[in-house]
Amino acid sequence: MNERNILVVAHAHRAETVEAAQRVLTALQDAGARPVLAGEDIDELVTVLPQCASIAVLGRDVAVADIELAIVLGGDGTILRAAELVREGTAPVLGINMGHVGFLAEIERDDMDEAVRRAIDRDYRVEERLALSVRLKDEAGAVVYETWALNEATVEKASRERMLEVVIEIDGRPLSTFGCDGIVVSTPTGSTAYNFSGGGPVIWPTVEAMAVVPLAAHALFAHPLVVGPETSVAIEVLRRTNGTGILWCDGRRSHELPPGARVVVRRSDRPVRLARLHPAAFTDRLVRKFQLPVTGWRGPDAEPRA
C-alpha cells in the first residue's frame, strides 16, 4: 500500500498554532500517515518542537505530486501560502482557522481534532475554485512575468504621492482610461477580500465570474464590473504615468510595472481545490464571518416557488 503523505502548513509565530501543529503531526503519525512540512515551516517550528527535525520535507523527501491533502493551521494568508505550495499537484487544501476572520478556512480551531480524524478517513469532499492566470507583457508585447492567483490580481501605484494612468480592456476592446490608485481583478473566492474592501460585489462561489474594481479612480465611469469566466481583462499602464506600478497576486507575489507594461488576466485552466467537511450555505458563512445582523428573520417562505 502506498504511503499517505499529508502536508501540514503552520508557523511558529503563535503558541496556539505550535500546539495545534504538534497535535496534528502526532495524530497523522498515530494513524500511519506520513506528515510532511515545508522547509520554511520546519526552520521555524524546530526551535520549539525539536521532533520536527525528523519530519519529511516537501520537495526534498516528498514531491508535490505525491501529497494527498494539505492541512493548514492559520488564517487566510496561510491558506493562500498552502495553495501556492501545492499548486503543481492535485492535493486539496483543508483550512483550520487559527486567525481572525479566516474566510477560506473550513472550520474553527475548536473542531480541529474532528477535522483531522475526518481527513485521515478521507471523509471530505473537494470543491474546485476558479483561479486566475496572470501575464505581464512589456511594451514590445513579450511576456516578462507569469503567475496565478486564487483571490485577486491587483495593479497598484508604487508611490503614495503618484497616480497610475491606466486603460482597461475587455476581450480585446478598450473600455475606459483614467487615473487611479489601482485596479483589482478578483475571483469569487477573493470577492470577500481586497475586492470587498475596494467596494466590489460579493460573488457566490458557485458563480463563475471575475470582478474588476477600480480603486480611487478619477473618472465618471469607474464602477465595479462583473465579467464572464472566459473574459480576458487587460490593464495597460500608460506611458504618461508619472512613476511605476506594482503587480500583486494574492498579496504574495509581486513584480514592478514600468510605464507601457500590460497585465493580462484570464481564468486559469487549473482551479484551486479546497477540502470541505460541511455542506454549509455560503450565506451562513457570510453571516458568521462578518457577524451580520439577522434578527427578525422568520424563516423561508412556505409557499412553493412558481
Percent helix, as a range, is 10-25%
Which CATH C-level class of the largest domain is it? Mainly Beta
Please state the structural category.
alpha+beta
Strand order of the largest sheet: 3-2-1-4-5-6
Strand content: 25-35%
Walk me through this protein's architecture.
This protein is of the alpha+beta class and 306 residues long. It folds into 2 domains: 5-129, Rossmann fold, CATH 3.40.50; 132-267, Tumour Suppressor Smad4. Helices cover 18% and strands 34% of the residues. The protein contains 6 helices and 20 strands. The protein has helices at residues 15-30, 39-45, 76-85, 112-120, 194-197, 282-290; strands spanning 5-9, 34-37, 56-57, 67-74, 93-97, 107-108, 125-129, 132-137, 143-149, 152-157, 164-170, 173-180, 182-186, 210-215, 225-227, 233-237, 245-249, 253-257, 262-267, 272-276. The chain has a 6-stranded parallel sheet with strand order 3-2-1-4-5-6, with helices on both faces. A 6-stranded antiparallel sheet has the order 9-8-19-16-11-12, with no helix packed on it. Strands 15-14-13-10-17-18 form a 6-stranded antiparallel sheet, with no helix packed on it. Strand 4, helix 3 and strand 5 form a beta-alpha-beta unit. Helix 1 (15-30) packs parallel to helix 4 (112-120). The longest helix has 16 residues, at 15-30. The protein is globular and about 60 Å long. The model has no long low-confidence stretch (mean pLDDT 92).
